[in-house]
């Protein structure tokens, strides 16, 4: 019997004589396709019985009432039903030897594409009104695409991949794309395996299994644009059918064809192609032939054109106006197998076996997992056919056979005799014990002793433990590589992986065996020393044998490391006493640093007295650069000339020099940009002759204080007590304006010392103007040490982490001009002048009548006097 299918995806309504019947076929029988509207599409089928005298049976989808499950009940305009058509028997309830199912693709259904199933029934009465209708299934069952614009159903193929007498379905979606970590993919083919049984009514959804999706490399490849079946092209004994998929636009439009082999089930199907035929691999027939384009745009297979018993493949490349015939080579189908006699290798045996067999396991350490072997067969001196000249004799492909891709090799395993009972399965019971304090924490103080000692005991209470291994996890930042002792002999550490030490305990570790281990962990010293936070140790044992109880295979503890280190900060002013006086200069008059005043150097020394080295130490110094003032800017005090430098002297006498930091260096370090008189730093300064004998002046400090005792008790002294002190932290007393200088030390070894110099000038003008009548002014800078808390350093005495550098500034009396006494004649002249002014004022007042008092004769006064006298007379 024969069945002709015609798809008409663009058939117009009212065109009974249409010669062009859509994208699939062109034949005159489409005169019986009424009812297609708006490119909804349709399908026409004709059944040819074997009996030439029997009547052909025609079926079509157009004109069927939607109430009778016509296609218009599901499909709309521009769905392109019939873009691809095939038929087969998949397992639907209505299928039998007379009835089959037509599969039709509608590439634009729901904008994703779909494949619908149309029952082709031969049992209808020819006189029935609906005998020629091709309708949907009762539940309108279809398969739909998953991506917008993927053109699911562009190409379909019906093929029995597993030879179970139920057809399977291949559906192409050439415009589906995806981008993953594996690359960019363009196009896909969905493989729907049939469930392999005939389903009952209303079980159409269970006919096919979950699809397998294969994708094509290259986002523009259009993988799945063409699909064809090849038959059993590899000649396997199971007669599984194979297929080819075209990707015409892969490799920049050159194209390629992918060959896939059938398989027993969807679980055993290999999604990787067994062969990829690209356009570049094909030889050119002549030199004038251009490179192929769109190779794989159309495919046709399943026919043996050269008669060698293997189906060939015809491939179209429309952009090159070329059709290529690929002839299949004969396949020698070989099944490689090994004879399994349950052989086991005795690992405790002698070396009397064959040399080649001995080398397989002589250096092996894994006795649990079997040895894997692969036995394969290959053709010796395999010949490859060559392309004949144009017009030459066709090559006989029977002279160039190939081996089957799968089946010509066999992989098998050989077990070891582990001596672990009848089942040859080793079940061990390893137990790890270690010395531990009651609270689970070790406390150790490092000083003279710089190791942490831990002892371990490993037991095996069951069968052999193969590749028994102890793993010790430690902090590699704080600890060196551990040293192991086993029965007074060192134990080799097999390997290190980061902070994990791996120790082999035996292969195998026999039953009831015990292993004692002692570990010595040296604390890291020097610049590589890490943070001193509590150390956590972890240890666990395992083997390649099966373990009964994993709860006692691990152990952990925390070791609190106490590091003792005594840091000391000292400070000194060089010189400790300076004098100010002489001529006062403003900022605009100054050019050199010596114009400011005498040199004052504050030196801070940081010393680590041990017994442990420290890291990340910070020195903060509050520097009094201006006197206190209600204004934003005060008068200069100690004018800092250079960025403070710190010089670290290591125990090996090497020196490290670097600068300290501050927030506003341009505003605090020589903001006037004064020039240095001498770059060597040995320049002469103002009033240098008065500082020749500093020792003598230090001895005379008490005498100077007594000499100016009146100044101490004056009201000005109250202000001086505030001026000579700077707050240790933030200048909280507000007597001087200070900024903070930060000096950071990455590492301080034991007995190492660091010196920080603050080179400044005493601002002479400020002290001459404001403190000329004061005994002395004490100017302080304060420093403090700050330790990184995460280092775990503990100090017993922290009071020596603070220091002050004090500079005493004395006024140079001869150099300060004193106020001269007032002459006596000035006093007499001032007194006479005052008397003269008084006489003039008296004369003026006298002339104005100021000293005369005239009593006015007012009538009221007389009346009051008369009344008073009358009252006296009447009383008498």
Description:
This protein has ten helices and 46 strands. 10% of the residues lie in helices and 36% in strands. Strand 8 (155-159) and strand 9 form a beta hairpin. It has six domains: 1-144, no CATH class; 149-328, Integrin alpha, N-terminal (Methylamine Dehydrogenase, Chain H, 7 Propeller), CATH 2.130.10; 344-417, no CATH class; 427-552, ntegrin, alpha v. Chain A, domain 3 (Immunoglobulin-like); 566-815, ntegrin, alpha v. Chain A, domain 4 (Immunoglobulin-like, Sandwich); 824-876, no CATH class. It has 876 residues and is mainly beta. It is elongated and about 175 Å long. The longest helix has 24 residues, at 824-847. The strands form eleven sheets. Strands 26, 28, 30, 31, 33, 35, 37, 39, 40, 41, 43 and 45 form a twelve-stranded mixed beta sheet that branches. This is BMA-INA-1, isoform a. It is found in: Membrane.
What would a concise description of this structure say?
The protein is mainly β and 876 residues long. It has ten helices and 46 strands.
Based on DSSP secondary structure assignment, what is the total number of beta strands? 46
Q: Any idea of the CATH topology of the largest domain?
A: Immunoglobulin-like
Question: Which CATH first-tier class of the largest domain would you pick?
Answer: Mainly Beta
**What low-confidence regions span 5 or more consecutive residues with pLDDT below 50?**
12-36, 679-730
Structure class: mainly beta
Tally of domains: 6
Q: Beta fraction of the residues?
A: 35-45%
CATH-level-2 architecture of the largest domain: Sandwich
| Rounded radius of gyration (Å) | 55 Å
Q: Helicity, in percent?
A: 10-25%
Average pLDDT number: 79
Outline: elongated
Q: Please outline the major beta sheet.
A: 12 strands, mixed
What is the CATH H-level superfamily of the largest domain?
Answer: ntegrin, alpha v. Chain A, domain 4
* Distance, first to last CA: 180 Å
The total of helices stands at 10
